[in-house]
Design goal:
CATH superfamily of the largest domain: ATPase, nucleotide binding domain
Number of helices: 10
Oligomer: single chain
CATH architecture of the largest domain: 2-Layer Sandwich
Order of helices and strands: EEEHHEHEHEEEHHHHEHEH
Number of domains: 2
Distance between the termini: 39 Å
CATH topology of the largest domain: Nucleotidyltransferase, domain 5
Structural class: alpha/beta
Length: 341
């Protein structure tokens, strides 16, 4: 079945920023024809986190196969594509280079535009794939392993960062606390699982709100409070309940994220909050936001769990809107591991 026609925009999305090799084929911004993810979680679990050199090698091994599977499932070929969208930052430099080099080669050979996508933007645009009734202006809360941002969107391509983390991101803090508690990797889901049977009020961990008018985040001190609690207990030969520690820390993180989001909504005219990033899959965060926002007449939207973690579907979706704006990348596009938003 051929998809080629004058009124179809077919984007191949590629994502290799960290430890997932992913490719997706998206038609006209809403029809996901294929979505392939090769995860490296099992490979990195024994190390307690992602090992950059191993990650880049795994991308090299799986890149061609993943792209071919995406083509096969979507029943398209190079000649059907309108453009290729690829993550070029932020992320691990070796991992990013695999995706960028592969995307450039395919785009050049096929004679089609190349679109560079900021990974953080991709996370937010996962919502536009699953919720097609979104209207501007809107606020986005991006919560991932490496980033925590509050972003105000006036329209596609027109946004203002209202707040960002000053140290550890929420997901990073969850990972580090999970490691300290011996819960394994990835930390966020493990904290949530352990916390389900714990008491969120067992430990009164701090909620770092910073200056009264600040929308920035800080989770380093909150993480340190957990580590200090653990060290103090060991020195006294005390045994603390892991489930209570997990539940209490998770509650502290969620409280800060929700309070900052509500404060940002009060300062803007947005009536929609988009939740994005890996931590967007956290059930407590979703439920707490829902409870607070419904009272304020604000709609809460978030993608399904498979689109919260790193994936190419979100990159293809962001690429679709760049394509409409004719925002194409030069052939000199390179990986930018420290790319900001």
């Amino acid at each position: 079945m051929s998809l080629a026609s004058d009124n179809q925009i077919i984007i191949l999305g590629i994502e290799t920023s960290c430890d997932e090799t992913s490719a997706a084929v998206l038609v006209n911004g809403t029809e996901l024809r294929s979505h392939i993810i090769s995860s490296q979680i099992a490979t990195h679990q024994k190390y307690g986190g992602v090992v950059p050199e191993i990650a880049s090698r795994e991308h090299i091994l799986h890149f061609q196969k993943v792209v071919q599977e995406a083509f096969t499932e979507a029943q398209v070929g190079f000649n059907h594509l309108s453009a290729i969208a690829v993550t070029y930052g932020p992320g691990l430099v070796g991992s990013l280079l695999v995706g960028v080099a592969g995307a450039k080669a395919i785009a050049y050979a096929a004679g089609i535009p190349l679109i560079g996508i900021n990974h953080l933007e991709g996370h937010i645009y996962a919502n536009f794939l699953t919720h097609q009734d979104l209207t501007f202006p809107l606020l986005a809360l991006l919560v991932s392993g490496g980033h925590t941002h509050l972003i105000y969107f006036e329209d596609h391509g027109r946004y203002t960062v209202l707040g960002r983390t000053r140290d550890d991101a929420a997901g990073e803090a969850l990972d580090k606390v999970a490691r300290a508690l011996g819960l394994g990797y990835p930390g966020g889901p493990q904290i949530q699982k352990a916390g389900q049977t714990g008491d969120p009020a067992a430990f009164d961990f701090p909620r770092a709100m910073l200056e009264p008018d600040s929308l920035d985040f800080s989770f380093s001190g909150m993480k340190s409070a957990v580590l200090n609690t653990l060290n103090s207990a060991r020195m006294k030969n005390q045994t603390l309940k892991t489930e209570d520690l997990a539940a209490s820390f998770q509650q502290a993180v969620v409280d800060v994220l929700v309070r900052k989001s509500v404060l940002a909504l009060e300062r803007t005219d947005a009536k929609i909050l988009l939740l994005a990033g890996g931590v967007a899959a956290n059930t407590l965060l979703r439920e707490t936001l829902e409870f607070e926002l419904v009272k304020r007449g604000v709609g809460l939207y978030y993608p399904p769990p498979v689109l919260c973690t790193d994936n190419a579907a979100m990159i293809a979706t962001a690429g679709y809107y760049h394509y409409l704006a004719k925002d194409f990348a030069p052939w000199t596009l390179n990986a930018v591991p420290g790319l900001s938003f």
